[in-house]
From TrEMBL:
It comes from the Eukaryota. Transmembrane segments: none annotated. Residues 2-118 form the Glucose-methanol-choline oxidoreductase C-terminal domain. This is Glucose dehydrogenase [FAD, quinone]-like. Belongs to the GMC oxidoreductase family. GO terms for molecular function: flavin adenine dinucleotide binding; oxidoreductase activity, acting on CH-OH group of donors. It comes from Cephus cinctus.
Length: 138
């Protein structure tokens, strides 16, 4: 939050959320602003812009799960780290099977896609080593 506009936008979002919580439908659900002051922000009047800036600088965090740091690519993409069969490009014998290969951050939780990626790599590794990939061989 080096740019003052970042703080300004976040405070505007807080104020919009408070306004939403004060609508009749939300009040009927029992919505209310709880004015518990953060100890590190006691020097500012509660609900002032200075208070919210202090709160933002104290408690702001991302809800995104880390992903996309080791982009998987099609064969012809030179910007990626991992090829379509999860091998790290330029390093023999190393594969990646986690959320880092997902090229864009999804809007959902990463557990299920990560399990799918790991299961796919397990099947590919079994195939490479000559093991059956069918979980219930006949």
């Amino acid at each position: 939050m080096d740019d003052p506009d970042d703080v300004r936008v976040l405070i505007a979002e807080i104020r919009a959320t408070i306004a939403l919580s004060e609508t009749n439908p939300m009040r009927k659900l029992g919505s209310r602003l709880i004015d518990v002051v953060l100890p590190s922000c006691e020097q500012h009047p509660f609900n002032s812009d200075a208070y919210w800036e202090c709160a933002l600088r104290t408690w702001t965090l991302t809800l995104y799960r880390y992903s996309g740091t080791c982009k998987m690519r099609p064969w012809n993409d030179s910007t990626a780290v991992v090829d379509p069969i999860l091998r790290v490009i330029g390093i023999k014998g190393l594969r990646v099977a986690d959320a880092s290969i997902i090229p864009e951050i999804p809007s959902a939780h990463l557990s299920v896609p990560t399990y799918m990626i790991a299961e796919k790599l397990a099947d590919m590794a079994k195939q490479d080593w000559g093991y059956p990939t069918d979980p219930l061989p006949s």
